[in-house]
Batch of 3 targets.
Target 1
Amino acid sequence: MRIGLLTDGGYPYATGESRLWCDRLVRGLPQHEFDLFALSRSAHQEDQGWVRLPPQVSRVRTAPLWTPEDGTPRGSGERGLLARLVTGGEQSYGRRDRRRFTDRLTALATAICTPDEAGTEAGEGPGAQLFAEGLYGLAELARERGGLHLALRSEGTVRILEAASRARGTGRTVQNATVPDLLAFAAELERALRPLSLDWYDQESLGAVDLCHAASGGAAALPGLLAKRFFGVPLLVTEHGVPLRAHYLSAADSPYGTPVRALLAGFHGRLATEVYRQAAIVTPGNTHVRRWQRRCGADPAQQRTVYPGMAAERFGRVGEDAERLGAAGEDDGAGGPGTLVWVGRIEPAKDLIALLHAFAEVRRAEPGARLRVFGAPADGEEAATYLAHCEALAAQLFPDEATGAHTEGVGPVTFEEIGGPEAPGLAEAYAAGGVIVLSSVVEGFPVSLVEAMFCGRATVSTDVGAVVEVIGGTGLVVPPRNPKALADACVALLRDPERRARLGAAARARALELFTVEQNLAAFRGIYLELISHTPVRREADTVDAHGDPLPFATPPEARLLGHWTRPGPHLRPQPDPDRAAAVPGRAAEPGARLPDRPGEPEPQHTRRPEPEGVCAVAAGPAGDGDA
């Protein structure tokens, strides 16, 4: 099977989100062929290059989403001088195309600016239909005319957006949008819709794959929507985080005013709803993501929670040692059982300030306790400032303690980086303490907790994101922003080594059962086969050669039969009991009559002879019970 893997700012680039997960997925399913369709987010990301690709990756198509405002999306060919001067490389629109563009953009803008009425389920109001009409209409126009880049930045676009924002039913925030606000939103809308103008939508690109797998929602799923629209390719969407939630959180830091943020939120909300509506299966990485998807219109029957797989072998030795020493009743950890360990990126969302105040309470109860913080500041000046603030607070709360008049004092709190002499690797960092602490106020899937569970460590965590789902009763969970509760939980585990050992063993068993790479690959292997069995798509690219002539035996004989060709024929189904059927009032078992396959199915009005033996007989199903 050929899989079209759609990524946004990640694989196959050496930096980016979901890079490691995508690489493990591609390498772990060598029986499939992968075509990569990647969107890049910055020039720096492209300069870093790609990771080494396995042989099952047959081709890679890339496109940037960071090009300057006057740039032309990759894939546009050279055209006439007049067209390049007027449209920047795109074909000029005639009167009919301009009317089509105006109608489709008006529908899209109306859906973005006008929220659904209160109580309307996501995807069921008129706005969802308008958004789909506008989105696919613009996609068809871009496919025919070579792109929408300059058209979306034209004066006509701003006028359409202004009319939609002033229409009846829009909110007061959107109605207050000024011309600069509309210009800024038009620029962001053009950047978000750039995947519509790519040259990926033909029989040799996305039309040649059997399944589109989007590694995230948002821009990465847009090519998948169009592949389903143009070629009938089924779409699978995997989300380990919530792109819509991430947009909401980052909106406060954007340079735009409130009207632009409201318009962008309307667009991303409508896009998320359309992606979930069109996806054959949506695989959230945890229940927290699953709830967000359902709120945005995902059908619960199409959701399959698949936890992201992690490499358990990296922590195998530490976990086995902890399990062995715990069973023998001995303390484990080079740092001693009285050491708390925190691992992660140092940024405000991790709330190390609350952890330091909580450790002050721990020190009052356990004077010999230590806290080791392993991590580095995240990218950005704000994260570096936050690290300096945490170090200053630690020096103030816990001054250096010297054992003698001529010895150098050492504080009970240390800030260290992975790779030092005392913690050369991540596993050694977790092995340095008896209790692992997570103090975040915002968290998605807690990777550090899963790593601690692989190491057989007891954990104390705040109740955020998917923490409770991951822990599952194998650790202590306290409310966020509550240093007193965090301190009490840490003291309880520090004073009870038997409880620490029990929780650590249970945590390791749970992690090995749910969060390994093997279980993740097994889940997607089954989902791929399920989707392709329910959607046996036969496209023109698979049935003709390079000259357009039919290929012999390209279409299997099963495709000529009515019904689902993956369903066994009636002669292979369990034969009903004639005596039992005759016992039903008003129904008699006549010789040669076909009885209903399921309770409640209408009684057949004709008789049929037994199916002949052979391939066609096995593939045949009930007449009219599916697509040909």
Target 2
Amino acid sequence: MAVTARRMAHREPRRHRTRLTRSSNANPRLPRTQPPPLPASPYIERRPSMSSEAQQGRRGTAVESNGVNPVPDAERRGKPRGLFAVWFAWNISILGISYGIFVFGLGLNVWQTIVAGTVGYLISATLVGILAVGGPRTGLPTLAQTRFAFGMKGNRLPAFFAYLSNMGWKVTIITLASTTGANLFAKLWPSVFADTDGSSATATIVLWFVLVLAVTMAVSVLGHELIMKVEVWISWVTGIMTVAFLGFMVPEIEWAHLGDTPAGGPLVFIGGIIMAMTLVGLGFLNYGGDFARYLPRDTPARGVIGWTVAGLSLPVVILLVVGALLVGGDSKLGAATASDPIGALTALLPMWFFVPFSIVIVISLVSAAITGMYSSGLALMAVGVPLRRSVTTSINAIIIAAGAFYLLFISTSFLATFQSFLSLIAVMMGTMGGIQLVDFVRQRRMGWNTDMSNPRGYGGRDGRWTAIVSLIIGTVVGLGLVTSSDPNFGKITGFLLTENGRTGVFGSSGLGIVIALALGAALYAILTFGLRLDPKPDYSLVTAGDAARGKGGLEAPTPDAAGRHAADRTER
């Protein structure tokens, strides 16, 4: 204001520059200016401005207005420890016991299952935690931040894969929540809600499916603030009830028979690690930063990683141990869990505890579905669908209904379909995650410049072939090296394996998933850093006239030495 007044007093002519040279997000330690709005774009959800007081009054009760745009600094809040409740609530579920039984079923003994599962969980959770750091640094959800590597239009490919991953998980979780609720009603009022054989009637399952889906949609549409509050309470309730459940399960362990199962070979052990990674972790790579992006920009990376890893791995490691001990003493439990992962375990409970615990199971599964539904709405926006997040969430509900119909009424084995789905998404998401981890080095060097997520000419690019080619090659090779026990999924896997390879240890171990991740990351690193095929942000369409009319981004300066050192301090 003072500068403007002096210019008017001295009648100085206005000086126009042909290009702006400052980015609002170029470096978290450098002074920032508020950029003018970008041109209207179907890829960027615009938000009406709102005063701080209005934001405070509406938190948790109104639909979240942030989509795939960077969260403004004024709306950043919280501590990294808040991430623990989100991931803990997501994974503190009886399903974690079933996961341990699934890993055991590969051919491991009890102790191998515990070690392999724990190692797999920790590795994959750490990858999620590292990718979550991009949330506070940029304010972007993970699938908008991948535009840095793939470009605006090129990002549609990994975002679509991520969207399929989200949908598959939501189908699985909501189906399990629906069947658990239906099983509860069938036991309480068999004359109304059960068939003649005592199983849940189809109408009962459909009723619960509609109820679960409606609750999931309502909370996920309201958005981040409400989710963060709800997850804290769900974590406490689910955690307490799960501890009580373990009190009933431990006496069921037949300790004398734990050594009856022979040990598996080295490749089988590696297969156990990889399967644990696919069960918990690799499927979360595409939205690791979604719940961290509201944290302040300078939040320490170690806090984001540490609390994410703790929330993800702590509950599933404990439940893995219990599952391995249970199935190690009773081999029949493994077969029962393969067809009904939750019902096989709740059948061991007395009725007085079965009722409240079934309710808690439904709540915990709905909790996981809510956070996933929220991220799947962001994923669909990142694909390029020009709709608001509330509308994309409604579209997701229709797709989930179709997938649940397949799982409930077409698939002949829950475990076969579930394992096949995990292999497919792990290949896709693992390759994308590997590329994104490598690109973090590039993003950090460039000061986490969010202009790179903009359209071409405003800081971003349409596509970066180095990342796209790396993703395609890694995914195709990975799919050719994994197998599927579901006949429908099996048509697109294992085409690089011989017949012996498909039926042998290599095919069952899932090594193709790790190969895909490593191959995609290595190719991208060679092209980007080895061959230096790394074009800088494109500001060709940004002019002073565009900025004056509210059309354009701001070019990021090269950080000076002080800026680089300041940015480095935020990572330690």
Target 3
Amino acid sequence: MREMTKGANVGLADLSDDAGTVIASLSWSSTAGDGDADVSVLLLDAGGKVRGDADFFYYNNPSAADGSVHLLGKTPTDGGSEDRISLDLTAVPEDVERLVVAASRYGGSRFGDLDDLRMTVADRSGEVLLGFSIGDASVESAFIFGELYRRGTEWKYRAVGQGYETGLAGLATDFGIDVDDEGENEAADAIADPGDGGGAATAVGSAGAAQPLPAVPAQPGPKTAAAEEQPAAPAPKRPRARTAKKKVTLPAVATKSLAENDSWRAARLFPASNLKSDKEREVRATSVLLSVMAQVPEFGRRLTAAFGAPAGRMQTFTEVSLPHGETPKRPDGVIRVERAGKLWTALVETKTNGNALRSEQVQNYMDIAARRGYEAVITLSNDVALEGSPLVEVKTDGRRKHKVALWHLSWAEVAHQAQMLIRHEGVGNAAHAWLLQELLHYLQHENSGCHGFQNMGPSWVPVRNGIDEETLSQGDPRAVEVVESWERLIRQVCLRIGGELGQKALPVQRTQRGTTALSRRAAHADRLCEEGRLAAELRVDGSPGTITIVADLRTGKLRTSVEIPVPEGAYPLTSAKRLMRQLAEAPADLHVETLVEGQSGPRGTLERLRPEPGDVLPRDGSRITGFRLSLFKSMGATRGNAETGFIRSVDNAVDRFHSHVIAHLAQAERRTRRTPSPEPESAPVPAPAGA
């Protein structure tokens, strides 16, 4: 790997023979676990400007129609997250000279609050070619991490590291995106993130479709360029894009059935009720998935772009026989993508119903792929891959010039991507939406075997028994296995809730700098042995705070909670009454706990506190810093995903908390921003002397 310094450049062809498609990754970490940023890509012409609004890609406009740019989304890392972007350089239009890769923060956050700002570029096999770290971030709310640019027929990378105090709007303005402060329509403004209450700005390019952008704060521009001082302006909002071409999504509420009674079952394109064996499930699941990938370009591209595949004509095959020694091997599937006369190929190995991948089998496919010039082997199972804990161990022959990448995909990730497309982002036509809906119905059928992670593993029962009997000691490897299963479960919960809401949902990792995945899990396992609890935090876009999940194995209770801060200088009783109004439709058994300068204060159920909000205030007048809202639920006893299982109980607890607490808080917050706040209660007036 080539380590870059600020301002340095290098030709991609000098680092890899296969750099036509690359994966750019932007990463950062936060010891507090609450750091986040959004990546963006701008395509620039020879004049250093975008050709129109279609050349600006960010989280609400994630991919180019020609496949040259595809934002792949975030994946959690130790202490932070990594945002990946697939760049098919062979598909970049000839009049585009540069691709600028940037990231921005919002809500007053700055990059100086994050650690380990870094950009890497990998070829399609997954081998990292170069890395660039930014160590001088401070007050900037947007950063250009790097750019890829043409020099004749060659593509080169330049490490930029230029920051903007004016955020994404200032960066966009520099590259020819016009910013209009006159405001966006009311509906778009209503769903924008919390800001100053002003109108959302719009970017207007040559395509003519308005895209809301943050109003440009009149602060000094990029650190490396002089800017004329202007009056202060509101803090930036996150952009909300509207695409020029309408996409098809399915309605959230199903149409009324024409069946005579509820026992009738609708005809399905992919029936699952007659599957009897694991082999039948694997064959059917592979065929169903690969056929839909080939017929729905948006979906096929969404899954393969993460593996370095170009955007092109896709064909898929199942049960292919390939020679290997004396006995031919039959991988479950083959994917072939053609673009501009070049072919990208991958072997697919599928497992369903909780069956584990076998190292020997995957090793055989890696060897076959290397000999036949395939680019990748893709494994697909219910398991969720974790950093530092590979699902299968394979050996790579370093003497071979041709490199084969090994990638893993969870059935939960497949369902997540299908749901994001048909419920939130949209596809090209109604037939594609229907195909994806049929795929999703098949994956969710109880007999398909494609339900995602659904077993806490063989160590779950012994660890629970050891905690109950107080015989579990620190350093027990079974506790580490349970922690790994817990982490897989939380990642799957994030995938599921993110797909349902159409929002980014990520697990939060609070770790010290330099901590590895293995050491972090070992520390969590020791705490599990000592305290008998598993804990995790989720960050969901649009939520008023971080959602905490605690599974207490000693009491058999699940606790889901969120902490709501109190505005500085707010009157305590006003804050308590406002909270009761926001929770008017929340469950009566919701626990409300006052946080007094970081410590626990008065507490009670919502049922008791609604008539008397003042009961939640400390009697000694201590300063309130916030409120903790919690719901409790009994957790399942078994290790699996049965109705009485632990995994099902965690899913249900998170669903109930988000729909009955978080959603009401978010709605109340939006209503508050649109209406004036009530007058606060007057501060107590001291009685006159002698009264």
